[in-house]
Amino acid sequence: MMKMNRRTLIKALAAAGATVPMISPLSARAMSSNDTSAPKVVVIGGGFGGATCAKYLKRFDKQIEVTLVEPKKTYMTCPGSNWYLAGLVDSDTITHNYSVLADKHDVNVIHQSVNAIDAQAKTVKLDNGDVLKYDRLVVSPGIDFKYEMIEGYSEAVIDQIPHAYQAGSQTEILYEQIRDMKPGGTFVIAPPPNPFRCPPGPYERVSMVASYFKKYNPTAKILVLDAKNKFSKMGLFVEGWKQEYGDMITWIGAMDGGTVKKVDVATKTVYSDYDTVQADVLNIIPPQKAGKLAFTAGLTDDSGWCPVNQETFESSIHRGIHVIGDASIAGKMPKSGHSASSQGKMCAAAIVSHFHNWAMPRPKNVNTCYSLVAEDYGISVAAVYEMKDGKIDMVPGAGGVSPSAGSVQQHKQEADYARGWYKSITADIWNS
Ligand SMILES: Cc1cc2nc3c(=O)[nH]c(=O)nc-3n(C[C@H](O)[C@H](O)[C@H](O)COP(=O)(O)OP(=O)(O)OC[C@H]3O[C@@H](n4cnc5c(N)ncnc54)[C@H](O)[C@@H]3O)c2cc1C
After folding, report:
1. Ligand 1 centroid vs 335 CA: distance in angstroms?
2. Which end of the chain is more exposed for a tag (fewer CB within 10 A), N or C?
3. Does any ligand 1 atom lie closer than 6 A to the CB of residue 233?
């Protein structure tokens, strides 16, 4: 096996999808040289950020003892969950488990929830009462919702009015409701204000629900009541909606009163300045904040997200704890699975560098967000990121969006790339 040193770490990081052109000053705190016990890293959350970080910690340095704590035995990805709603993939295709991480990469996987972190004692407490000690902790808990921002909506009613913004049982409920909707009924979706998980996610959902209705409920209508005035890839989505679905979809932005303020759960009625509308199927995606654990562990600031050193993802509040993925404030990087996974790799490199007292490699990062407008109609946005004045910023002129008025061939190609992206990133994280 290849022996890891800083040069091979840089090579491994580059092979994992990041470029590493610069060297930063030596990490201030390394393991003491006479400490011969294997350093322990606990990673909380087995989603895009946490599972990637756990795997790459072991890839970069086999000696580190890595424990991944995740309550779910199987993880349904949000990416692909809109395709599932349309009936384009089955649930097995977008559901993964942790056996490769455990068996092949020697990650100690524990299926529990963490209910407390003690940053002073460097311990985490699990739901079953067990306490784990760590030298470094990685927290990737994803998101939580500000239900209270919409009167009448709460966690208690999400089985009637699903958000389906954490994939799993919520996705299944929305799937059934779409299929049970009466002919010619109205599907109302309320996307959240910024910042939120997956900026194109609600609009790909609109597209995928429309593609299902086009086949099985062609007189159905979709009303998008948006809390924003514009959204990711807006021009491309609107162009595709017109072309593929005619006048099935109506989008109302915040400037026209689109923000949903109140919901009557029993009648599925939504109240906004635009109108009072009774939905047949109602999909509210509430405003968002960092996952619960980030709050209980005191890792959030007034914004409701976690401030970090954007190079190493070490918390600006608690030293020795790194926060990655949607919960972190990661400069210009969007809250996406691709970003979370890139951050997992950067964070793994930062921790390995810290243990060895190596200078932290300084990578460039990439994020690509593909969306399907229809089964064979894909669009994308891509960007490259680098550190600038202590923050993650976009590299000017790198990346871009799909061209408007693309050809049938281009749309088909991008749809194939979207499916390819899904296969390769999930293989990288959970399956290889
Ligand atoms: C509809 C939709 C479509 C999307 N499509 C795309 C796409 O095409 N491309 C893309 O890049 N991104 C996409 N995303 C975004 C992507 O899903 C998220 O950005 C990504 O999952 C973030 O990863 P994470 O690790 O931060 O959080 P998650 O992936 O949500 O992982 C968090 C994990 O932490 C665990 N956890 C939480 N609390 C605890 C605790 N106390 N103890 C232990 N474990 C805990 C949870 O069980 C969960 O498994 C989409 C999102 C949605 C909703």
Report:
1. 9
2. N
3. no
